[in-house]
Design brief:
This protein has 249 residues and is of the alpha/beta class. The protein has a domain at 91-154. The protein has 7 helices and 10 strands. The chain has helices at 56-63, 99-105, 117-122, 138-151, 168-184, 196-202, 231-244, and strands at residues 2-6, 13-23, 29-40, 45-49, 71-76, 84-87, 156-160, 188-192, 205-209, 216-221. The strands form 2 sheets. A 6-stranded mixed β-sheet has the order 6-7-8-4-9-10, with helices on both faces. A 4-stranded mixed β-sheet has the order 1-5-2-3, covered by helices on one side. The two termini are 32 Å apart. The model is unreliable at 5-9 (pLDDT under 50). The protein binds adenosine-5'-triphosphate (ATP). Keywords: ATP-binding, Nucleotide-binding, Transport. This is NitT/TauT family transport system ATP-binding protein. Belongs to the ABC transporter superfamily. InterPro entries: AAA+_ATPase (IPR003593), ABC_transporter-like_ATP-bd (IPR003439), ABC_transporter_ATP-bind (IPR050166), P-loop_NTPase (IPR027417).
């Protein structure tokens, strides 16, 4: 039995997964998540890190309602029908629609006709609104996917490795763009990443997961304001992260 229910507008995201398993191809079942509990405060930027295959994407799929087969409870932020923006590793844009059409198709009724100039400009997509996804590099397609996720003014932004397999300069540029837009319009963010340095640049809090069956080993709060996280400060934070979680990743 599971429940997936939205609560009041100022609520936080609460994940309490008692058990999630998959049927193994050779019979029996594989326990992936076991007593996985954490909460993300309203407008907090949280990252989820953990060993490969521990169940990070599975956790996101459960909270997005893409998989209902689990024991536990997930409380989403936002009132009524919460708006959830999501960006996956694959940008998943409709190839026969322009960038702007892809973004507009995602808009809820209340935001139809919204002026998107500022968002497109902020993401460097101003001149590419009429382009088709096939005409974009991976970096630009990721920008379009971010635009689509942010345009809906989400109560919750869910990101699954959105900067993976980009060259470092492009990834860094996108991280800065995301932070800039998020600081103008803060929302609750849960992002999966393999990259602890990326998490240290972006997050208020990092949740560290154990190997399968996965639970939260600990949460790492970063109190230093983002604008003060220069390379030296980030490397100090990274050192204390590794001191606290020496074997997890
Ligand atoms: N539909 C499925 N059927 C069976 N097993 C699955 C299914 N989806 C995921 N798994 C298994 O569940 C485990 C967790 O997968 P998941 O993709 O959530 O891990 P992850 O932490 O996101 O991995 P990575 O860091 O490598 O992206 C893996 O062992 C995976 O093989």
């Amino acid at each position: 039995m599971n429940t997936l229910r939205p609560v009041g507008a100022d609520a936080r995201l609460e994940i309490e997964i008692r058990r999630k398993s998959f049927e193994a191809s050779r019979g029996g079942s594989i326990d992936v998540l076991h007593d996985l509990d954490f909460a993300v405060e309203q407008n907090e930027f949280a990252c989820l890190v953990g060993p490969s295959g521990c169940g990070k994407t599975t956790t996101l799929r459960l909270l997005l309602g893409l998989d209902h087969d689990f024991e536990g409870r997930i409380k989403l932020p936002g009132a009524g029908e919460p708006r959830i923006g999501m960006v996956f590793q694959e940008p998943i844009l409709l190839p026969w629609r322009t960038v702007e059409e892809n973004v507009r198709l995602a808009l809820p009724k209340a935001l139809q006709g919204k002026n998107l100039d500022h968002l497109f400009d902020a993401l460097g997509l101003g001149k590419l609104r009429a382009f088709y996804p096939g005409e974009l590099s991976l970096g630009l397609a990721r920008r379009a996917a971010l635009a689509r996720a942010l345009a809906i003014e989400p109560d919750l932004l869910v990101l699954d490795e959105p900067f993976v397999s980009l060259d470092e300069a492009t990834a860094q540029q996108l991280r800065h763009l995301l932070l800039q837009i998020w600081s103008e319009h803060p929302t609750t963010v849960l992002m999966v990443t393999h990259n602890v340095q990326e998490a240290i640049m972006l997050a208020d809090r990092i949740f560290v997961l154990s190997p399968r069956p996965s639970h939260v080993v600990g949460s790492f709060l970063i109190r230093v304001p983002r604008q003060s996280r220069n390379p030296q400060v980030r490397s100090d934070i990274l050192r204390s992260f590794h001191e606290r979680f020496p074997t997890q990743l």
